[in-house]
C-alpha cells in the first residue's frame, strides 16, 4: 500500500489541469500521434501503432498516465534504415528552407506551450514554473540558432547519417527537443529514443508539431537492451548523442569507439561547492533554495558541499534556515480554483522507486556514521487530501557520508545534500574532485587570488566564483572533464560543429581518448 498523507481540505486540483484534461487536448491538437489511451511511435515519416504500450503512473500522485510503446529490436532497425532515407533527402534541402521549417515548428511549440508544460508536470513531476521554463528554453534556444545558422554552417556539411539521441527524462524539451531541432537545422535527420521513466507524451506532441513542418524526426520507445544495437551500433547512424549515467554512457562509449563513430556523451558527475576563507554568508543563504530546483534532479545540481572546518558553524547558520524554507508538494494543488499554481521548489522525484532508493541510502549512511543535520517532513508540504505521496522525498542533509555509501562518491539525483569537512587546501581539492570529473563546480572564497589559484585545479568544465554554474544557453559552451563527458563538446557554435563535417583533418573540441580540446 502506497503511503498517503492527509492534507488540508482547502487544497484541490486546479480546474483544467487534470491528466484527463491534458490528454483530451493532445487528442485534439495532434490526433495523428495520440490514439485512445496510448501514444504512437514516429518512423518512416508516419505514426505507427506498433510496440507494446507499458503501463505508467504519474509521480505526482501515482495515477495512471500513458506509457511508452516499446518496439522490438527488428522494428527499431527498420526505423533507423527509414531515417537514413529521410536523411539523404533532407541534407540537400537548402538552408533557407530548413530555417523556415524549423521556425514554423517553433511557432507551433509556442502556440501549445502551456499544454507541453502541463504534460511535463504530470509525466516527470516538474513544478509549473520549471515546466514552463523547460519549454521556453527549448524554443528560445533554437530560435537563436535559426537566426545565426548561416555563419555557423559556412563550409560545413551534414553528417553521412542521422543523429541518434538517447537522453534522460529530466529535460525533454530544453535538452532533447532543443538538440533535435538544431541537428535538423544543420541538415541531419534525427532519431530520438523516448526516455523510459517519463516524458513520452510531451515528446510525442513536440515531435508531431515538428513533423507537420516536414522535419525528418523519428521518435521511438523501447528498452536500452532492445534498441541499443540499432540506435548506437547501426552503420546508418552518423552520430550518437547521449545524456545519462556513467554506466550506460561507458557502454555506449565503448561501442562508438570501436566503430569510430561521432559521439556526444554527457554523463553524470558529483558537482561540488567549496567553502574556503569565506564570509559572505547572506549570499549563500539566498542561493541555497535555488539549488534545490526540481529536487536536484539536474545534471548541474550541487549535492556536495566541501566546507572548511573552521567555518562550519557559520556555514550551518547560513545553510539551515535556507534549507528549512524549501517548498514542496503537489504541483497543481491550489486553495481556490482561481488561484495561480503554487510556486514550489520541487514536487516529487521521478518515481516511488527512486524515492525509496534515496531514503534507503540515507538510512544506510546514517547507520554507518553520517550525521543527519536536516531532515524535512512531508507534513510541511502541500498535498491533496488522501493523495499518494510515495514519490515525494523532503530535503535531507548529511554530514560526513561514509566512503562505503553511494552518497559519498556518486550523484544522488534527488534532494539529498552531503557535507564534507576539510582542513587544508589539498583536502579541499581532493574532496571537490571525488568523482573523477564533473560538469560544474563552485568555489566560495573572499580572496580573488585564492580563487584564481585553486579553480584551475578543480576538475569541472565550468567553475563559478561564489555563484552556481549552469548548462548555459545559446552561445555558452558546455562539456565535462574526466568521466563526466566523452566526445564532442556542445553549446553555441560547437553544437553545430559536433553534428556536421568540416575541413579535412578537423579536430573537434571535446574530450576524446587521444586528446582533449576546449575550444
TrEMBL record:
Domain Aldehyde dehydrogenase: residue ranges: 50-493
Keywords: Oxidoreductase
One Pfam family linked to the record: Aldedh
GO molecular function terms listed in the Swiss-Prot or TrEMBL record: oxidoreductase activity, acting on the aldehyde or oxo group of donors, NAD or NADP as acceptor
Record InterPro entries: Ald_DH/histidinol_DH, Ald_DH_C, Ald_DH_N, Aldehyde_DH_dom
Protein's recorded name: Aldehyde dehydrogenase
Amino acid at each position: 500500500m502506497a503511503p498517503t498523507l492527509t492534507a488540508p481540505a482547502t487544497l484541490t486540483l486546479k480546474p483544467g489541469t487534470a491528466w484527463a484534461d491534458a490528454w483530451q487536448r493532445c487528442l485534439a491538437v495532434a490526433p495523428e500521434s495520440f490514439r485512445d489511451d496510448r501514444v504512437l511511435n514516429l518512423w518512416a515519416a508516419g505514426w505507427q501503432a506498433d510496440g507494446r504500450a507499458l503501463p505508467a503512473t504519474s509521480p505526482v500522485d501515482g495515477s495512471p498516465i500513458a506509457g511508452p510503446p516499446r518496439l522490438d529490436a527488428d522494428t527499431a532497425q527498420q526505423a533507423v534504415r527509414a531515417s537514413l532515407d529521410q536523411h539523404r533527402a533532407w541534407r540537400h534541402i537548402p538552408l533557407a528552407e530548413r530555417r523556415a521549417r524549423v521556425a514554423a515548428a517553433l511557432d507551433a511549440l509556442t502556440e501549445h506551450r502551456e499544454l507541453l508544460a502541463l504534460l511535463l508536470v504530470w509525466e516527470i513531476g516538474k513544478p509549473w514554473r520549471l515546466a514552463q521554463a523547460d519549454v521556453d528554453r527549448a524554443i528560445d534556444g533554437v530560435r537563436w540558432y535559426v537566426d545565426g545558422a548561416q555563419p555557423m554552417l559556412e563550409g560545413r556539411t551534414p553528417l553521412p547519417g542521422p543523429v541518434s539521441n538517447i537522453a534522460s527524462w529530466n529535460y525533454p524539451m530544453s535538452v532533447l527537443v532543443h538538440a533535435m531541432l538544431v541537428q535538423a537545422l544543420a541538415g541531419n535527420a534525427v532519431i530520438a529514443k523516448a526516455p523510459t521513466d517519463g516524458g513520452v507524451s510531451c515528446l510525442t506532441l513536440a515531435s508531431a508539431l515538428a513533423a507537420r513542418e516536414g522535419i525528418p524526426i523519428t521518435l521511438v520507445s523501447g528498452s536500452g537492451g532492445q534498441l541499443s544495437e540499432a540506435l548506437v551500433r547501426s552503420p546508418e547512424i552518423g552520430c550518437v548523442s547521449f545524456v545519462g549515467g556513467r554506466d550506460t554512457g561507458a557502454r555506449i562509449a565503448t561501442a562508438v569507439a570501436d566503430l569510430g563513430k561521432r559521439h556526444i556523451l554527457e554523463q553524470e558527475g558529483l558537482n561540488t561547492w567549496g567553502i574556503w576563507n569565506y564570509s559572505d554568508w547572506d549570499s549563500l543563504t539566498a542561493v541555497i533554495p535555488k539549488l534545490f530546483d526540481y529536487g536536484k534532479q539536474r545534471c548541474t545540481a550541487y549535492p556536495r558541499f566541501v566546507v572548511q572546518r573552521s567555518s562550519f558553524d557559520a556555514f550551518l547558520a547560513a545553510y539551515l534556515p535556507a534549507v528549512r524554507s524549501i517548498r514542496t508538494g503537489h504541483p497543481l494543488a491550489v486553495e481556490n480554483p482561481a488561484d495561480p499554481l503554487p510556486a514550489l521548489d520541487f514536487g516529487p522525484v521521478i518515481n516511488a522507486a527512486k524515492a525509496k532508493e534515496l531514503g534507503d541510502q540515507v538510512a544506510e549512511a546514517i547507520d554507518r556514521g553520517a550525521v543527519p543535520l536536516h531532515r524535512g517532513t512531508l507534513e510541511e508540504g502541500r498535498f491533496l487530501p488522501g493523495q499518494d505521496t510515495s514519490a515525494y522525498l523532503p530535503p535531507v542533509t548529511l554530514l560526513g557520508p561514509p566512503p562505503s555509501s553511494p552518497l559519498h562518491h556518486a550523484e544522488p539525483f534527488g534532494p539529498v545534500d552531503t557535507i564534507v569537512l576539510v582542513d587544508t587546501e589539498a583536502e579541499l581539492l581532493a574532496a571537490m574532485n571525488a568523482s573523477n570529473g564533473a560538469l560544474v563546480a563552485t568555489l566560495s572564497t573572499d580572496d580573488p587570488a585564492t580563487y584564481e589559484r585553486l579553480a584551475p585545479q578543480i576538475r569541472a568544465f565550468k567553475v563559478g566564483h561564489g555563484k552556481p554554474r549552469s548548462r548555459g544557453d545559446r552561445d555558452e559552451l558546455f562539456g565535462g572533464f574526466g568521466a563526466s563527458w566523452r566526445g564532442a563538446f556542445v553549446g553555441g557554435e560547437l553544437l553545430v560543429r559536433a553534428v556536421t563535417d568540416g575541413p579535412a583533418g578537423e579536430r573537434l573540441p571535446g574530450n576524446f581518448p587521444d586528446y582533449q580540446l576546449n575550444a
